[in-house]
Amino acid sequence: xxxxxxxxxxxxxxxxxxxxxxxxxxxxxxxxxxxxxxxxxxxxxxxxxxxxxxxxxxxxxxxxxxxxxxxxxxxxxxxxxxxxxxxxxxxxxxxxxxxxxxxxxxxxxxxxxxxxxxxxxxxxxxxxxxxxxxxxxxxxxxxxxxxxxxxxxxxxxxxxxxxxxxxxxxxxxxxxxxxxxxxxxxxxxxxxxxxxxxxxxxxxxxxxxxxxxxxxxxxxxxxxxxxxxxxxxxxxxxxxxxxxxxxxxxxxxxxxxxxxxxxxxxxxxxxxxxxxxxxxxxxxxxxxxxxxxxxxxxxxxxxxxxxxxxxxxxxxxxxxxxxxxxxxxxxxxxxxxxxxxxxxxxxxxxxxxxxxxxxxxxxxxxxxxxxxxxxxxxxxxxxxxxxxxxx
Length: 391
Known about the structure:
Elements: H1 43-66, E1 97-102, E2 106-109, E3 117-118, H2 124-134, E4 145-147, H3 150-154, H4 156-161, E5 174-176, H5 177-185, H6 190-201, H7 204-217, E6 236-237, H8 239-250, H9 253-259, E7 263-266, E8 270-273, E9 284-292, E10 296-306, E11 313-323, H10 330-348
Antiparallel strand pairs: 1-2, 1-11, 3-6, 4-5, 7-8, 9-10, 10-11
């Protein structure tokens, strides 16, 4: 069994728990026990147990002082062993809702963290999570082919007119599972979300039922999915719920690897780029963007940060939802706000940072004009966007 929140095998020991020293049991001569038929031990018989006890005590003391051995090379970074009180001041975005999940600390709530709001294409993280749960991929594996049905190809022109976020498809086109997930997560193709849902569950309705069941299993109590793409404004979640999902997603190796790609080549569509232009900055390695008129600008970011030095990294997942702006600026605004929040969280985890987490919207870090959030727009060819679903 696997833990639904982290993706790790259930029962995996917590390496952050300090080693507890157990005193060796006292060695009693046989005559002390009160057991009948035992003869008092001779002096020679007492010497060997006493020497062995001393050796054990010295070894345990050395282990206690030096700590448990480090993880083997190539193993995942160990969780940060801190309590919530160890987080310094946090500056949250001026607008919208936000939250973070920090390994070793858990969910840290920003303004409106538990309020359900539309999440646009950030919903596709759950779509990818379920597809890979049901159809796991090994590193480099393409997975089975998915055949585009005639009705799905025929719907493409109308979807373009609606301003949906799409990749072109043709009837009978064969796309591997990995390529479909790349089209889903990089250029945020709505039609690929619908194709994957049909392929995985037989219908979109069946897949949406799985999305909601999985959300409940992960403890996402403020989340309700009504479609696999996030195009529907009725698909809502909270920032706190999304960082829980993001943490689970980052422990699914294939999903994390695809979300970190800057570009990919998809059949028919050709070269596509990732709308998350923050990849590679400040340790950011994912996860998903989203924007439309109902949700505003949204971003779910994941970053590995070295907060203690020595290469010991901690995973930070942050959600920034509902950023304001025009159709052209809401996504750059969300990306800028997300990056500044990530930087602030990294600073708050540094030793010596102020210990009073600031859950307000008054910090200078989060009250700039919209131009300060400017992030280069991705140079991706896609259908003209309308007021419905963006990336």
